[in-house]
């Protein structure tokens, strides 16, 4: 299988209100879902469950992300889809983490990725534990990988995923409008330099005076923008054919010509 349908839910997030955010996700999928024989991977924004309330993780966090896993699991079964990215504020035994989960169409919680790079501008290191591992997984035979927001600025991470066989890099984010040009440029760069698909879901709306920039995107291995949102809520389906990844890599042979011993 090389065909995959990506569903991006670009949404506003109500800080600290898990119920309101859950309802928005559920109502959007219930009202706008279109069935397909092609496997579908749904991507949500960063910390879509409670928003950027990391300083109050004890109050708003989700113990081991169990509530989100149960909620998404039921939706996955209902719509026969995957949830592949879109992080939540998870509470672990060691502290809080910015955690993206993978849920399969049977509702099973497959794996998770904790944000590796914590951004000093938001003092994330004061409130969150950094992730300690890369996470790759298969969607019906398609190799995919996870990253979150600030991770986009670290090309080493996506390059390692690519050398490990990833065909699709997934990002979720709360990226501000003030730096949205960086977001768009970096997404295309990660796709072009690694000859892979990149799908990225950002939030919209304003919290504590910060306007978030939307512009969720899907980009192909040659840097062609297959979809780019604006700055309002959107829910779209984008079909990709990952056979294009091998064709692109075979053509330019970037990975064959790497000389990491000199880097």
Strand and helix map with partners:
Layout: E1 3-10, H1 18-32, E2 40-43, H2 57-60, E3 62-63, H3 66-79, E4 82-91, E5 96-103, E6 109-114, E7 136-139, E8 142-148, H4 155-163, E9 168-173, H5 180-194, E10 197-202, E11 204-207, E12 210-213, E13 217-219, E14 225-228, E15 234-241, H6 243-252
Kindly summarize this structure in a few lines:
With 263 residues, this protein is of the alpha/beta class.
How is this structure best described in words?
With 263 residues, the chain is α/β, with parallel strands linked by helices. The protein has a single domain, classed as Nitrilase/N-carbamoyl-D-aminoacid amidohydrolase (4-Layer Sandwich). The protein contains 6 helices and 15 strands. The strands form 3 sheets. Strands 1, 2, 3, 4, 5, 6 and 15 form a 7-stranded mixed β-sheet that branches. It has a 6-stranded mixed β-sheet with strand order 7-8-9-10-13-14, covered by helices on one side. Strands 11-12 form a two-stranded antiparallel ribbon. The longest helix is centred in the first third of the chain and has 15 residues. The model has no long low-confidence stretch (mean pLDDT 97).
């Amino acid at each position: 299988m090389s065909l995959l349908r990506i569903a991006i839910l670009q949404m506003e997030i109500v800080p600290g209100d898990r119920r309101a955010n859950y309802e928005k996700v559920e109502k959007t999928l219930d009202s706008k879902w279109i069935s397909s024989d092609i496997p579908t991977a749904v991507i949500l924004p960063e910390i879509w469950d409670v928003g950027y309330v990391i300083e109050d993780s004890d109050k708003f966090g989700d113990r081991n992300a169990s509530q989100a896993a149960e909620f998404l699991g039921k939706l996955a079964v209902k719509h026969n889809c995957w949830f592949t990215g879109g992080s939540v504020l998870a509470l672990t035994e060691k502290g809080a983490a910015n955690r993206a989960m993978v849920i399969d169409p049977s509702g099973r919680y497959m794996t998770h990725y904790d944000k590796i790079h914590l951004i000093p501008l938001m003092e994330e290191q004061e409130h969150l534990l950094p992730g300690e591992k890369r996470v790759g997984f298969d969607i019906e035979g398609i190799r995919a990988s996870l990253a979150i927001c600030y991770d986009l600025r670290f090309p080493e991470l996506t390059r390692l995923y690519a050398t490990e066989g990833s065909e699709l890099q997934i990002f979720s984010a709360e990226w501000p409008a003030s730096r949205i040009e960086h977001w768009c440029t970096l997404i295309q760069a990660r796709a072009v330099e690694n000859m892979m698909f990149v799908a990225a879901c950002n939030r919209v709306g304003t919290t504590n005076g910060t306007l978030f920039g939307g512009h969720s995107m899907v980009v192909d291995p040659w840097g062609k923008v297959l979809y780019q949102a604006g700055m309002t809520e959107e829910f779209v389906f984008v079909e990709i054919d990952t056979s294009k990844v091998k064709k692109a890599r075979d053509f330019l042979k970037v990975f064959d010509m790497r000389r990491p011993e000199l880097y």
